[in-house]
Specification:
Chain lengths: ~200, ~240
């Protein structure tokens, strides 16, 4: 590491510093990242499917999904591009409640979140159970906008935000930990911001 | 214990050139892997007490260029870009990581007409593609549409105009949003769906690969306009920066 001549930087306040993972900075904006255009999604034809490999376990229309028990989560989110956003509020259906509604237990320890724009990302089941993950449909008290992944996106706030797949259409349990879209393109398999698991060669 | 090689490389600033009133080209020498056009570097600044700040900057130079060129727009309330603008000078050293990025990339063997749409400093990764495409010889038609506030805010403008003059396969359309520019073939308006459609019709090509880079609102508007013009979503790749 070289010390950069003349650089002192802008430090977070002592109140906020403990909330900022290494290498991150706080932003008030809500930047948007995606691999392509936001897909055009009709609620009338939207479906969410839980599957084990190719086999469907349960499936919900928008109206059915919207009637499932709701969970609110408030806290900080962290993007691998180094911005963090504090005190965000999300509402949706927790992974635990999804499994309960489907009447199943997680059949494997891994899954792929699948999106309507053919994006996917792998998440360990352990990172979703116990209230750690949800399928979010509202942000800041409003329906989730298309640019932020609406009508529904995965929310796994303790991992880098590429794991929180936008425009989600389902979760597919997999026998092994299968790499998703960014994981196949050099990003870390798990993505813990506190351990700076950004790229595949990070420990 | 096995020593894990650091992914960071030390880079030396070779020279700094003004690209537009708000952006600089920073040329670096670094022993990193050969990039693919469209990839970026992470630049890390370190304070004496260990505090660090990292930001990603797209590589604008051609993959085979001797020096790496980064286009740095000044974000006045930012932490890193004002430092790069006001303090950095030739001979300084920085840590860089990369080249990174496995989706917003183009390789010369890519077939079919290529459409690039840039908003402001979003032209940087697209410039790497233009430069890669231009040598040794252009093989497919390329249309670059670049939007900027004023004519002088178009980074790489003179190089692009020169390329347009000598390379028949290269079409270049500028759209200035805050300055009327009376130049044939260029426009003084926001890049909306109608203008995109007009550009595509004049080009008379169906793009096989589309890359759109700029601020989020710009990228969203352009991607939507391209979908409206009949370009399939599956060929459109986007890269966005900044807030809404």
């Amino acid at each position: 590491m070289v010390t950069t001549r003349g650089f002192t930087g802008r430090r977070p306040s002592s109140l906020k510093a403990p909330r900022l993972p290494p290498g991150q900075f706080e932003t008030d904006d809500f930047p948007v990242l995606s691999k392509g255009p936001a897909p055009r999604i009709e609620l009338a034809t939207w479906r969410f499917t839980l599957s084990h490999g190719p086999r469907p376990l349960a499936s919900w229309s928008w109206a059915e999904f919207d009637a499932l028990p709701r969970t609110t989560w408030q806290g900080d989110i962290h993007c691998v591009t180094t911005w963090s956003k504090f005190d965000t509020t999300w509402e949706g259906v927790s992974f635990d409640d999804l499994l309960a509604a489907a009447g199943v237990e997680a059949p494997t320890a891994h899954l792929l979140a699948l999106s309507l724009d053919d994006y996917d990302t792998n998440v360990p089941v352990a990172d979703l159970v116990g209230g750690r993950g949800m399928v979010a449909t509202r942000f800041g008290g409003e329906p989730l906008t298309a640019e932020h992944g609406g009508p529904a996106r995965l929310l796994v706030p303790h991992l880098y935000f590429w794991k929180s797949a936008k425009w989600i259409k389902g979760l597919r349990f997999t026998a092994r930990d299968e790499a998703g879209f960014w994981e196949l393109r050099g990003y870390h398999m798990r993505g813990d911001p506190w351990r700076q698991q950004r790229y595949s060669d990070d420990p | 214990m096995v020593a894990v090689p650091s992914p960071w490389h030390e880079a030396t600033v070779l020279r700094i050139e003004r690209a537009t009133p708000h952006s600089l080209s920073v040329f670096l020498q670094a022993s990193v892997a050969r990039p693919v056009a469209g990839q970026h570097l992470v630049v890390r600044l370190s304070a004496p007490d260990g505090y660090e700040a990292s930001r990603s900057y797209s590589i604008a130079s051609a993959p085979d260029a001797a020096d790496i060129e980064l286009l740095v727009e000044r974000i006045d309330d930012g932490e890193v870009s004002p430092f790069l603008h006001d303090v950095l000078r030739p001979g300084d050293r920085l840590d860089v990581r990369g080249p990174l990025g496995g989706h917003f990339i183009w390789r010369p063997e890519g077939s079919g007409p290529l459409l690039l749409v840039a908003g402001g400093s979003g032209i940087a990764p697209l410039m790497a593609m233009v430069r890669d495409w231009a040598r040794p010889a252009a093989s497919v038609p390329l249309l670059l549409i670049a939007s900027a506030r004023r004519w002088d805010d178009l980074a790489f403008r003179d190089e692009l105009l020169a390329l347009q003059a000598r390379e028949t396969q290269f079409a270049f359309v500028a759209a200035t949003t805050r300055e009327a520019v009376a130049r044939p073939g260029h426009f003084s308006q926001r890049l909306d769906a109608a203008l995109l459609r007009q550009c595509l019709q004049r080009w008379r090509q169906a793009p096989r690969h589309v890359y759109v880079c700029g601020a989020n609102r710009f990228v969203e508007a352009v991607a939507g306009g391209l979908l409206d013009a009949g370009v399939p979503a599956s060929v459109i790749r986007t890269e966005r920066y900044g807030g809404a």
